[in-house]
Amino acid sequence: MGRRTKSASAESPTKQMDGFIAKFDPKMARFIRSTRAAVRKRFPTAIELVYDNYNFFVMGFCTTERASDCIVSLAANAKGIGLCFYWGATLSDPDKILLGSGKQTRFIRLESAATLAKPEVETLLKAAVAQAKSPLPESGGGYTVIKSISAKQRPRRLP
Question: Are 47 and 145 in contact (CB under 8 A)?
Fold first, then answer.
């Protein structure tokens, strides 16, 4: 895709991403790729921070390389994908689509990548960008940074 990537591993972040996604069943892998592409298209200058954690495979779209500057993230497990709003608790949600009750994060469950184009989701995405502590870069391409890989992980495929 022509983006710069960063990783501490000898393997390129693109190869690592392919490996992370390959752990999922083929249908879920396609879902992850399509939603990731849709979010990348929506935020082309964002820095993508990737965490292959115990519970979830997470791709955060951020204004800087700090996780606290995340606008939204995709959190995938064997059962589905959530679109997480890092500072979602402070977003106006007139359509009452945000889930969660924590002090900071809210999310919506994605049915498909097309969910991202729904007007009520687009409104939340715009609001999340507007309240970001740091602005998204106005030009240039975003890039991917592999932040962490957990040695032990829950199964990425349903039994």
Answer: yes
